[in-house]
Amino acid sequence: MNILVVGSGGREFSIGRMLKKDSVVEKLYFAPGNGATDSLGENLSIKDYNELADFAKANAIDLTIVGPEAPLVDGIVDIFKAKGLTIFGPSKEAARLEGSKVYMKNFLAKYNIPTARYIETDSIDDAFKFIDTLPTPVVVKADGLCAGKGVIIATTHDEAKIAVSEMLSGKSFGDAGKKVIVEEFLDGYELSMFAICDGKDYILLPAAQDHKRLMDNDEGPNTGGMGAYAPTPLVNEEIYQKVKERVIRPTLDGMQKEGAPFEGVLFIGLMIVNGEPITLEFNVRFGDPECEILMPLMKTPARELFYKAATGKLDELNVEFENKFAVGVVMASGNYPYSDSVPAEIVVDEIVHEDIKENTHISYAGVTKEDGILYATGGRVLVCVGLGDSIKQARDRAYMLCGQVHYVGKKLRTDIAYQAL
Ligand code: AMP
Ligand code: GLY
To answer: With contact defined as beta carbons under 8 Å apart, do 6 and 308 qualify?
Structure first.
């Protein structure tokens, strides 16, 4: 089987890493990939989705897996399907669940899926009136894609009003902020859940927890995620059942009714408030770094899961997971998340400890390769993943690996998985 992975992050590396180990997979391509994915397969520099689909046809690609949201929201799935190709991901219409927060919130409301009380509006007066009815903090969100920066948690009413004014005027996020969501703040703990969907059926993966803030103790600015672990003991069978019955089933049924059956990864951002799962948001792709810790927990080949999902046959599949825990610690570059950093050579010490060698690995993200040398080129550089029989063991192994990786400006949190320990 020949497979194409679209994307360039640690998420795509981690999917590719599983595919590389799979004897059924013959040729593996990445578009565009990164400086390390070329050790797993071949990197392609084709940017145009039509050209990429032509490449897939000409090279007998049996399955394309799309990592990031941007190509999905742009309609890459529709383009590939129109050419008769098999691709795993939501259509452009279904990807609106992530592409527009207004669409997502209205969908949740329409199908009675629990979410924070909100209004969507492009009127400054309506927004201000609603803000005055809410206790603080108040949450303000831009409608469109803002690379994870479009959510403001305002500690005062005035701060919320300033955020709304700047969004609606186009000052803070351009067109993405022309409509806003104002919603109540939910106080609880956050979880990431992932359902692999084929339009009608789904498979729920073990629940994960991300760490969005840059610094230890959840301080500092928001990032794309500084580390994750799974499965989290913060989720019991009751919460899984509630998420299935109250969130995933109505979402799949609702999207069918909307004429946009959901295929792909439904990423459910949840806040657990007094034991009740409340949906904060949907994304239509794997989380990063969550994907990096979920992939190594799969016993069933990832290729089989994605292929069955892309061909509407999840009901035929019985997915098994390793009876283990995974912890991933992100190593970012010096100026992350503010600005780019000067490329810095990455040196990984030889790992002599058998135990560490066997139970850890690196998923590479923001790296380039020159003359066989890897350079950290900014953003999130890589994820050190540790596996173990307990979260503590997995975490200790991940941090042992972190200690073996060096580059100028290396930045990481030292408390990943603290909520579980
Ligand atoms: P979102 O992109 O909607 O997931 O928002 C980004 C982050 O903001 C989330 O991961 C939460 O940490 C936080 N957040 C969003 N909405 C709320 C809310 N209603 N209450 C509390 N925190 C929120
Ligand atoms: N780690 C969160 C995300 O990928 O959006």
So the answer is: no
Burial class (CB in 10 A: 0-12, 13-18, 19+), 53: buried
Any atom of ligand 1 within 6 Å of the Cβ of 269: yes
pLDDT digits (tens, 9 = 90+) for 133-174: 999 999 999 988 877 678 899 999 999 999 999 999 888 888
Can you tell me the distance from the alpha carbon of 148 to that of 163, in angstroms, rounded to the nearest whole number? 16
| Count of other CB atoms within 10 angstroms of residue 116 | 19
Residues in the chain: 421
Q: In terms of CATH, what superfamily is 117-184?
A: ATP-grasp fold, A domain (3.30.1490.20)
277 lines ligand 2 (CB under 6 A): no
Ligand 1 atom at shortest distance from the alpha carbon of 116:
19
Residue with tokens 């990786």: 405
- Distance between Cα 11 and ligand 2 center (Å): 10
What would the CATH number be for the domain defined by 2-92? 3.40.50.20
pTM of structure: 0.95
In SS3 terms, 352-383 reads as: CCHHHHHHEEEEECCEEEECCEEEECCCEEEE
